[in-house]
Structures are given as C-alpha cells and as structure tokens.
Amino acid sequence: MNVSKCILTLLAWPLLSFSDSSLLINELKGFVYGPEQRAMLKELVERLDSDSFIERERAARQLQRFPTLPPDLLESENTLPSPGVIFTLEQIRKAQSPVRTHALLRDLLERVSNSPRGIPTELVFDVVATHERGLYIPIAQKALNAIANEAGPEAMKNHLSHANGLVRLCAANSMIMALGNGAITTVEPLLSDPDDRVKLEVAFLLINLGHQPALDILITLTDSNSDMVRWRAKHLLSRLLRVNLQDEKAPRTNFAAFWREIIRRDPKQKLNIPVEMPSDIPLFEDAALSGWVEILNGQRLEQVTSWRYEGGILSCSGEGRGYLVTQQKFKNYVLQVEWKSKGDSGVGIMARRQEDPVRGEPPYLEVQTLSGVVGDLYLIGNFTARNADNQQISFRQPRIANPPEHEAWYRMKITVQNGNAEIIINDTIVNRVQGAGNETGHIVLRNEGDPISYRNLLVLPLE
User: Fold this and answer.
1) Could you give the residue range(s) of every CATH 2.60.120.560 domain in the chain?
2) 3-state DSSP of the chain
3) pTM for this structure?
4) What is the CATH code for 283-461?
5) What are the pLDDT digits (tens) for 108-140?
C-alpha cells in the first residue's frame, strides 16, 4: 500500500460505518508499528526535509492524521535528521499526546468488543503488546474476550507463549472466561511464567476455579521482588484464608513461611472463593478532585481553582502558590506517579496535617521535581528525618544518584514504610531517608508558581 492510499483510508475513517470490520482492522493497524507502517512513516519523514515548502507542509499534515507515531521512529536512521525535521515531529507528537492516543485506542477497543466478527486476534494482541504501558487493560480484555467468543478459545492458545507478558495474561484470561475448568490444563504452565505479574493473575484465576495447586504459587509470590505483586498476593491470601492482616511493626522478610504455617495448622480448610483481586488506590478520580483539598496563598479553598483534572491528566496552572493535599492519610505504602514540568515543584509525603494554622504549610518531606535536581529532598516546616548515613538532615538532602532525564514524563516510585522512605526515579534509586516517624500522613502536590502535569498517580497500601 502506498502512502497516498494509506492517507485516503485514514481520511475516510469517520465516513465509514463503525460496524464495518475492515474499518476496525484499518484503525487497529494504525496503532501497530509494523514494517508496512514504518515504511510509510519513513517516507513521510523524508519528505519533511524536502526543498519544497509545499511538500514539507503536505507531509506534516499527513503525519498528523496518524493516531500515534513510534517513539523510536528516527533511531534506525543512519544519518541524523535536520533540526527542522526533529522540531516538526516533536510538534506532531505534542498534538497527538499519549492521552489522546489512549483515548482513541480505548474507543476503538470498545467498538471491537461490540463488533468482534472478522477481527484477527493477532492484530488486537499486537496492539496490546505495542501499547502495554498506559493501556486501559479491562477494555482490552473485554475486546479479546469478545473475539474469543466469536473465533473460539483455540484462537487464543498460540498467544500463551507470546514474548509480551500482558499478551500471555490476556490470552489466559480469555481462555478461562470461555472454557472455565476446561482451560486449566492449557493455562496451568503459566504458573511458572518468568513474569510474576502473569503468575499472580493466572494463580488468581485458577484458584477461583478451585484449582488447589495455584494456592502454593500465590504463597511464593508473597516474597516477590515486585511491591505490587507482594501486596496483592498477601491480600488475596488474607481473603482466601480469612486471616486478618495486622499492621507490621517491622518489614517481614519471609512472607511465604508465614502463610505456609497457617495452612499447615489447618490443611483441610475451605477456601473463601470466589475472591476479588485487591487493587491499588487511584488518587485522581473525578474532575472535582473530591479527594483533595487546595491551599492557595495561605488560604484553604472550598473548591480547587488552580488545578484541573481532565483526560487522565492533573495540571497546575502555576497561578499563585500553595499545594494540593489528600483528604486521606496513609502510613506504609508505595506511591507511584508520573509528571512533566520545566519549572519548580515537588511531591510531599508524610504530611502530619493538611495545613498549619500559624505557618500555613504543614511539616512534610518534599521530593524535588525540578529538572537538574530531581530527587533532592527538602524538610518542610519542622519535619525531621535522617539520611541513609544516619545523619540528621538540616534542611536539604541532595540526591545520591542522577536519574536519566531524557524522558518527557518522569516516573517516580516512593516506598514509605515505618518512618523510612526510598525514592526511585526513572528506575534509579535517587535518595533514602529514615527516622521520619512511624505515623500516618497526607500526600502533597506543590504549586510553586510554575505549570506542572501529573498522571497515573496510585497508592499501593503495604498493610
């Protein structure tokens, strides 16, 4: 297919019937970076460097019609593109944005689930593998379940050995939804999957089918290296075995032994099934930001004014100075968040109060988000803590490592446990503190007069 034909197809999308499977197939192909699409995109990018202004403008307009562009589009080129090409592609990507792309994809997968006839399973799985990060998994799973019902569960079997863990998991889920106990033998090998996330989800599905061997896998996952997997496995077991979880005064180093001892005491106990998978806590849920309070210029506001939540993104206008603070308090948890900003701001943890009647800002620990000093720590108010060397921090604790800063969106994970905190940014440990007090505290997002955007903010309780 040549470029002009592809563009005509893209232009025709809104004019065609949504029930037309060929339309859905063409749209799905727009989200997969296959050889054919890469060749088309490469040709258009080359035309961005044309001597003709009209040719460059046409190429740019055609690129804008694609729902997304591969992040590594230029990495395979032998020669560096001109600054003009780089600038144009950057502007196109900004217009597309991950939020817009995922919104389009979510709508498309919803339509696939409503009209699955004739949609190749391979194509939908390719979309899942390409957009694993940021994909709304329940919608993708719903679409794949609909395809499995249409094409038959056997169409899913080949994907159980796919290189992508999410694909393996979705295929297993579709087979179990379609076949129930008849899928156990086929899906059971995934209990030995190299990805703990896959093992957890498959163990959960099989336990709900009464498959007892999956219980031991779930127990081993309480010692997983993944915070998310450990936490979910522990809470699943507490529900399955009717065990009340206690607030642990010190981190347990061998969870599996604890749960095996419980089973040893009563090996014939009946499992409490079906059981629901525990989930983390999303802190952005509605446009009113009902779970938050804004303090602006020292005043507590009845309604949030300088922050806006839309399309999965929380944005601060940078007007005035102050902060957002959660209504809820947390004690031991993992906080995950992504942010994008060129200005000054920070994420606060362990805030003792929402506000201080005298000073305005409560005591808490701030993690700096300003580019160039990302990961530096500041003690706000009369907050006290010691660094990794057990030395008292006076005001500022510089980062102990520099995270990669080449990404548009930074990724932060903060683990808070028993008054200690570890800060990881872009997969690099950048700071640690201890002795901050074993108390519950609010989470704070600072407004320091510069625009900043946040997304994917989740709290994973560790107790």
Assistant:
1) 283-461
2) CCHHHHHHHHHHHHHCCCCCHHHHHHHHHCCCCCHHHHHHHHHHHHHCCCCCHHHHHHHHHHHHCCCCCCCCCCCCCCCCCCHHHHHHHHHHHHHHCHHHHHHHHHHHHHHHHHCCCCCCHHHHHHHHHHCCCCCCHHHHHHHHHHHHHHHCCHHHHHHHHCCCHHHHHHHHHHHHHHHHHHHHHHHHHHHHCCCHHHHHHHHHHHHHCCCCHHHHHHHHHHHCCCHHHHHHHHHHHHHHCCCCCCCCCCCCCCHHHHHHHHHHHCCCCCCCCCCCCCCCEECCCCCCCCCEEEEECCEECCCCCCEEEECCEEEECCCCCEEEEECCCECCEEEEEEEECCCCCEEEEEECCCCECCCECCCEEEEECCCCCCCCEEEECCCCCEECCCCECCCEECCCCCCCCCCCCEEEEEEEECCEEEEEECCEEEEEEECCCCCCEEEEEEECCCCEEEEEEEEEECC
3) 0.62
4) 2.60.120.560
5) 899 999 989 889 999 999 988 888 766 778 888
